[in-house]
Design brief:
This protein folds into 3 domains: about 5-55, lambda repressor-like DNA-binding domains (434 Repressor (Amino-terminal Domain)); about 60-165 and about 300-325, Rossmann fold; about 165-300, 3-Layer(aba) Sandwich (Rossmann fold), CATH 3.40.50.2300. It contains 12 helices and 12 strands. It has helices spanning about 5-10, 15-25, 30-45, 50-55, 75-90, 105-115, 135-140, 165-180, 195-210, 225-235, 250-265, 300-315; strands at about 60-70, 95-100, 120-125, 145-150, 160-165, 185-190, 220, 245-250, 275-280, 295, 325, 330. The strands form 2 sheets. It has a 6-stranded parallel beta sheet with strand order 2-1-3-4-5-11, with helices on both faces. Helix 5 packs across helix 12, helix 6 runs parallel beside helix 7 and helix 8 (about 165-180) packs parallel to helix 9 (about 195-210). About 40% of the residues are buried. The mean pLDDT is about 90. This is LacI family transcriptional regulator. InterPro entries: HTH_LacI, LacI/GalR-like_sensor, Lambda_DNA-bd_dom_sf, Peripla_BP_I. Keywords: DNA-binding, Transcription, Transcription regulation.
């Protein structure tokens, strides 16, 4: 059915102005009328004229993001899952993405240009660094934004959503220590990213509390791919004193680590224990590994959806006053963790 604003208004017995205001979140339209309009939109497949909508509301109906592109930067399955959640919520509110590729060194300028273009109503920032100059830049712009993550050596006086990475790896390390493990390796994300810094911090805290020392020779930082996970685990197993347990920052890295452990003729959960962080990637479920993996779990897709909801709320479509959120992770114990093997 080809329905324009005039026909939709006639079907509902409302003025075009009322229908337009209902669709664009104006507070003077009561909830019952708004729901009638939204129901009719779903049933008819009506899509508003973007140019007219922008003139009426002063809003573009778009969320902006900057995507780093450069030689040597691989595509990231984790970011793709996050975008899926962001997209699902955006579609519910008839919002679009404006994706602006940028060389890493030009990101601040790209954000400024995107904000000034008038093509987006809000911005979000990911891949947060320890001291991140992009935060101050975003705060200087007159446009809503939400950060996925937190800086470390800067005030957290900005809207964010993050998970408790320190707590997640603290609890995971404590479990391994309770099982008798003393040499625990870490396969982590890139060292300049704050989630990786906090995960190491959580592990070190648990070790310190139990009189154990973090061994830098059993630590690895890299992009989170299965190949890097494989190489790191292979190197650890070649150590004169190999670890009896390993923590991985992603199920993707764990996939490579499992491959290296299997090729070495070792059994996960008996010869070596493994815990990984599970971002709830639909194509890589930890319970489906040959030996189901113990995990700390928090959904990236849910985080993307929540950030989209908050961004949209900040430009007046819904109401949401929450500025900062720190999500706890869930520790799920499966067969990949067992008692430390007896010393040979």
């Amino acid at each position: 059915m080809n329905v324009n604003l005039k026909k939709l208004a006639e079907m509902l017995g409302l003025s075009q102005t009322t229908v337009s205001r209902a669709l664009n979140g104006f507070p003077e339209v009561n909830a019952e009328t708004r729901q009638r309009v939204l129901r009719a939109v779903r049933e008819t497949g009506y899509r508003p004229n973007r140019a007219a909508q922008r003139l009426a509301t002063g809003r573009a109906g778009s969320i902006g993001l900057v995507m780093p592109i450069a030689q040597g930067i691989d595509s990231d399955i984790h970011f793709g899952e996050f975008l899926a959640g962001l997209g699902e919520e955006s579609v519910r509110h008839d919002f679009h993405f404006v994706i602006n590729p940028s060389a890493p060194e030009d990101e601040e300028l790209t954000f400024k240009r995107l904000a000034a273009s008038g093509n987006v109503d809000a911005l979000f920032l990911a891949y947060v660094r320890e001291n991140d100059p992009r935060i101050a830049m975003l705060k200087s712009l007159s446009i809503p934004f939400v950060v996925h993550g937190r800086t470390i050596n800067q005030p957290t006086d900005y809207p964010f959503l993050d998970i408790d990475n320190t707590g997640a790896f603290y609890e995971a390390t404590r479990l391994l220590i309770q099982l008798g493990h003393r040499r625990i390796a870490l396969i982590n994300g890139q060292s300049h990213l704050t989630f990786a810094i906090r995960r190491k911090k959580g592990m070190v805290r648990a070790l310190d509390e139990n009189g154990l020392v973090f061994d830098e020779t059993l630590s690895h930082n890299s992009p989170m791919t299965d190949e890097y996970g494989y190489r790191a685990m292979e190197r650890f197993l070649g150590n004169p004193e190999p670890p009896t347990a390993v923590l991985c920052s992603s199920t993707v890295m764990a996939l490579g680590a499992v491959r290296a452990i299997t090729r070495a003729g070792l059994t996960i959960g008996r010869d070596i224990s493994l815990i990984t962080h599970d971002d709830v990637l639909p194509m890589l479920k930890p319970e489906n590994f040959m030996v189901p993996l113990t995990t700390t779990r928090s959904s990236l897709r849910a985080a993307g959806s929540r950030i989209a909801s908050r961004l949209i709320s900040r430009i007046g479509v819904t109401s949401d006053t929450v500025e900062q959120e720190l999500w706890r992770t869930e520790l799920i114990v499966r067969a990949s963790t067992g008692p430390a093997p007896a010393r040979r």
